[in-house]
Design goal:
With about 80 residues, the chain is mainly α. The protein is built from three helices and no strands.
Length: about 80
Amino acid sequence: MMDRRKAKSKKIFILCLVGVGVVCFVVGILIGYFSRARRGASGTSFGPDVPSKIVSDGEEHISQTIIDLVNAENIRENLQ
């Protein structure tokens, strides 16, 4: 009698585990589907009401100046 109970409870446990796994899988698929970026009318992934100028990279010469000022030796020294 006790062996049947153990076998039955083990089957129920495995069924619950499979059920939870399927639910988690479906939730993951739904999150992935609805989290995709959709391109708005302005061509950005932020939506049609966000102007492209707000999300652009800005002044190119400022970015280049910052990149030029980065010293590889300082990075190595700070990583040690």
